[in-house]
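REQUEST ID: PR-0412
SUBMITTED BY: lab tech R.K.
PRIORITY: routine
TASK: structure prediction, single protein chain
INPUT:
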Amino acid sequence: MNNKFVKEVTAYMMMTVGACIAAFAIEEFLVPCTILDGGIVGISIMISSLTGISLPLLTIVLNIPFLIVGFKRLGHGFIIKSAYAMVVFAAFIRIFEEMDNATDDYILAVSFGGVLLGLGVGLVIKAGGCLDGTETVAIMLNRKYHFQVGQIILAFNVIIYATAGVLFGFERAMYSLLTYFITSKVLDIVETGINQAKAAMIITDRADDIAGRIYERLGRTVTIMEGEGLVSGKKVVLYCVLTRFEIRELREIIEGLDSSAFITISDVSEIIGTHIKSSSGGKEETVSKEA
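STATUS: complete
OUTPUT:
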């Protein structure tokens, strides 16, 4: 069986499980206590509480504009997976609406709701999708202005929680903020922190093709270095910094062009300076020797 097909099926199964867990957390723990998630889901909960409009319907309708905007800029694969995850998420919310609430205790709702929500969202992101349209906007702003994805999402959520404080009381806003903190920490465990940058080191025989495709699809500049392996001889090493949302797409690029490439991906704790995009294809050239 085709290895790529197996990976895709596995990714969609993971997104389905993640969307189910996230929907359970929302509908059984957070909504009964009017505790908000961040982003579009949080806005949907507020509107549903005030108007009585179906929450699953709102999560779909409010996310559509973000999917349309991101369709051309973030790649068809990411948007298709995100749309699938959002539809499954909404469907499970509708299913769980018919069940009794797990708890009416605020502390239990914050604790278990935050943990389950972080687990569900983490699985969806790990599989290459997302559940919230604000994430697509954050990724686009990250690529254009180099703001960290986590900072952009946090700014959105601060506005949402401030609005919730006005509408439902600041006690609800504080519970919601605590839930967001727990969710983020669990997400750190499932898939590295939402604002964590990654550094990719790629040893390949098709450096120009891979560097060009990375720049074309991800808008990331690539440093090209000369290396020498003890056994394999002279090699070309590519180095680039990207977000964790782009790692899956990077793997697809490399697997499609050079299945024998050697790749290492590591965490980046801090970035100083900006990426330089040159007029000759966006590649920075540096020459070094592999020890």
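NOTES: Residues 14 and 123 are 6 Å apart (CA to CA).
REVIEWED BY: pending
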